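[#protein-structures] MJ: dropping Branched-chain amino acid ABC transporter permease here for a structure pass
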Amino acid sequence: MDTVVLLFCTGLGLGALYFLVASGLSLIFGLMDVLNFAHGALLSIGAYATWWAGAEAGLSFWLAVPFGTLVGTAAAVLLELFLIRPLYSRPRDQILATVGVGLAVPALLMGIWGADSRPFPQPELLSGTWHVLGATVPVNRFVLVAAAALLLLALRLFLARTRYGLIVRAGVEDRAMVTALGIDVRKAFTLVFALGGAAAALGGALGGLYFGSVNPGQGTGLLIFAFVVVVMGGMGSVTGAAVASVGVGLVQQFANYYTGAGLGDLSVVVLLAVLLLVRPRGLTGRLA
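AK: finished. structure tokens for Branched-chain amino acid ABC transporter permease:
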């Protein structure tokens, strides 16, 4: 019983990490129709900025995480302003450009700090364990779950309750009409990209808690599962991405333990294939 509880809690923590990455990816695609292959690079920037602030600059973890998130958000804004915005009418070039950034950033990080993993500084408060139904579970798993839940709530409120959320949704449906009303849709799109980048950077910052280290290829590896989550949840559905993240995390953890190392990844691919056969548009197939 304690093994099942441990696998369930760690699966929820892994699923929460996937959601932190996939939520921004789903938000950007759903609202802006931009398939951002540089999303993993934003995660890596947030992870390394957090590591640098904590390990090199001497900031506490509670200051390093906001710092890393802000750096990743700034990188996302610059990416949208100077690379994505000029290519809105050229989706094929968009994909090629973001793929290039996604390859260049890990190479740059590797060139500066090397290919070896860097130990991630963890505060004493989050380095302990909690006892849950006989299982000893690392505290940081619950931190990831709490962060993912708060992010889901914040994104849903942004889309449904804020002026900019409504502007963006309207701009996606009919950009010319919204512009004719005197509303600058470009600013709203930049805000969406910033929010997506912030979510990715936060995932990188807190991903260090889960893995215990950061490395240049971490963002690329997590991006693969983020795309799986986005497709399973329904392209553009934040709520669907949350549900799919939990499913992927749990399946991966239980499959890795009960079937052997490496089969967890295969089980996720099988799950994706079965789901798409039953529901080709994913769990929801809508933005919510």
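MJ: nice. The mean pLDDT is 87.
AK: one more thing. The radius of gyration is 19 Å.
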